[in-house]
Each structure stands twice: as C-alpha cells, then as structure tokens.
Design goal:
This protein is of the alpha/beta class. It is built from eleven helices and 14 strands.
C-alpha cells in the first residue's frame, strides 16, 4: 500500500470534525463517495494518537491528499501516552460493567504485571458487594493459580446463572489444558444455548449433586500477562485463537518502561498513596527514586510503588537504603 499525506481533510475527534491537514497515513482505500460524502480510508494505527484500526478521512476528492514515499511517524508525547492509557483503562471499566450485566459474554485483558489490570476489574465488581452482603448468592469470584478441568466444570456450574462472572486472574495454565479449554469453548460459545457436558464418571459430581450437563448463562473474564500475538508455541497459539474468537480482547498497550513509568505517575497523581498519609515531598521522592532507578528495579510496576511506600511509612529516615536492598538488583 502507498502512504499519503492529507492536504485537506477532517476526522471526527470527540464528536467534532477536526482538520488533520499534514498528517501522513498508510493508504487502505482511495477516495470513495458514500452516502455521507467523500472520504479516503487509511490505517489509523500508522499514526500515534489515532484509533488502531482503519478510519475514514472526509475530503473533497483525490486531490485532497498526495502520495508520499514513506510515513513520517511522529513520536507520542508523554501527555498523549497518558491519555491513551487512561482511555484504555476507561474502556476496561466499561467493558467490565458490560460483562457483569451479561451484555458481553467474555473478555480477555492483556498487560504486563503490576499495572492495575485486576484492580480496575475489582473496583467494578465491588459495586455489587453490598447486594451480596444483603443475602444474595455470590455473583462473581476471582480464581487464581491452577485449576483442574473438573474443578473448572464445578466452578462454572456454581456461577452458571445470568449476571454471574468468573474471573480467571493469571490462570494461564487453563489455556494449555485441552480438557479445560474444551469446557471454556462450550461455556463461551456464540450460540444462544451454551451447554457444558462432563462425560466421565466422577464421585465429586455425585457427592456435590452436580449434573453431568448444564446450561451456562454467566460470563467470564481472563486477566493475563500474555500478549497473544507474541506467543510462538503452535499448540498454545491454536488454543489461544480458539478462546480469542469467543472473547473481546483488550490489550492495555503498556509495553515499554516509558509507558510503565507514565502509568505509575498517573496513578500516584490520582491518589494511589493517599492512604499512607505521606507528605507531598515524600510522595514525589518515591516517584523520583523509581524513575532514577527503573533499570535496576526487580519490577517496574505499581506493586513496587506500594512496596516502597510501605518502607517510607515504616522507615521514614532510611526508606531509600531499605529499598535499595529489597526492590532492586545488586549493582
């Protein structure tokens, strides 16, 4: 495909037609006249700040853009990165609500450890905790660690009703277990009737009075550190593709140390450390310490921020020295 430079054209940003003259995109489809006017289709992912999909640029004709040899990709500013990350986490919140309501059957959330994947989902689910405390049956559960195929079958039966949600938090082993994966594929099928079967004799099912077949009307969320498109194992990749085809997939796009650091600054600024009752100077010193030593930290994440905040509150005069010995690699 050719690359083009927009000479005269607009794109709707936050509901407003905005001139994007001067921007350069990968051309997907030349000028076309549709019901709402003329437009050229381009790859939005080729320019930072635009949606990562094909988009339509309104223009008057093929003379509104010119073919260029190569796209000049501008680097995202810190502000643009923070806005992108905030938008992704807002989408995660909205999608979690949709899963809880049963409007969305399943969702996969991918991102590195310690960036707040689970926390955002926990916040949404906590809204329903009051109803649970009033005597209603549990409506959701976080499952962490290894789960057997039979254990998965029983757990899905427990949460089979509509509006119930099973959340698999870093249970990546379930992706590599054929029997468990087949159960998940049945539970998340696109058919209106989703029937799960267990065709092997089981004392556990008999003792707990669980049938060998039931309809699953609940929803599921998978929280994982895996970036599906980067998985090289053919066996695992085929399993992931089967699951991905049944789920909405959200990549939080936090891949570099720069993005992780900006995410840390954003969350700290939003009040992450308020409960520690630390003065502003100490909070700023913690963030500066992390940024200065990010290449030596055992993990650049929000969890590390909390670890250092614990030390700053417990050892106010020597938290930096304590941190050097507990959250950093030796020089």
């Amino acid at each position: 495909m050719s690359n083009i430079k927009i000479l005269e054209g607009t794109y709707k940003i936050r509901g407003v037609d905005t001139s994007i003259a001067g921007e350069q995109f990968e051309l997907i489809k030349p000028y076309t006249v549709g019901a709402s006017g003329g437009y050229v289709t381009v790859n939005g992912a080729s320019v930072p700040g635009f949606p990562e999909r094909n988009i339509k640029i309104k223009c008057e004709g093929s003379t509104s853009y010119t073919v260029v040899g190569e796209v000049v990709r501008k680097e995202e500013s810190d502000t643009e990165i923070v806005e992108r990350l905030r938008e992704r986490f807002d989408i995660l919140r909205d999608m979690t609500i949709a899963v809880k309501k049963g409007d969305v059957r399943a969702m996969i959330v991918s991102g590195p450890p310690g960036v707040g994947k689970s926390h955002g989902i926990e916040d949404v689910m906590a809204r329903y905790e009051t109803f649970n405390q009033l005597g209603a049956v549990p409506k959701y559960e976080f499952i962490k660690g290894t789960v057997s195929p039979l254990g998965l079958y029983c757990k899905l039966y427990e949460f089979a009703a509509k509006d119930n949600v099973v959340i698999f938090d870093d249970c990546d082993s379930v992706f590599d277990e054929p029997a468990a994966l087949n159960i998940l594929k049945a539970a998340l099928d696109s058919k209106k009737s989703r029937t799960i079967n267990w065709n092997t004799d089981s004392n556990k099912l008999k003792l707990e009075d669980i049938p060998n077949s039931f309809s699953f009307l609940g929803s599921a969320i998978f929280i994982t550190n895996l970036k599906f498109e980067n998985v090289r194992s053919k066996k695992l990749r085929s399993h992931l593709e089967a699951l991905e085809s049944r789920c909405h997939y959200i990549d939080l796009t936090i891949d570099t140390d720069r993005e992780k650091m900006l995410r840390i600054k954003q969350i700290v600024q939003d009040g992450m450390l308020n409960e520690y009752c630390l003065d502003d100077n100490t909070v700023n010193d913690i963030v500066d310490f992390i940024e200065t030593n990010k290449d030596r930290l055992r993990e650049l994440s929000l969890r590390t921020v909390l670890k250092i905040a614990d030390l700053a509150k417990t050892f106010p005069l020597k938290w930096e020295k304590m941190s050097e010995n507990t959250v950093m690699h030796r020089a």
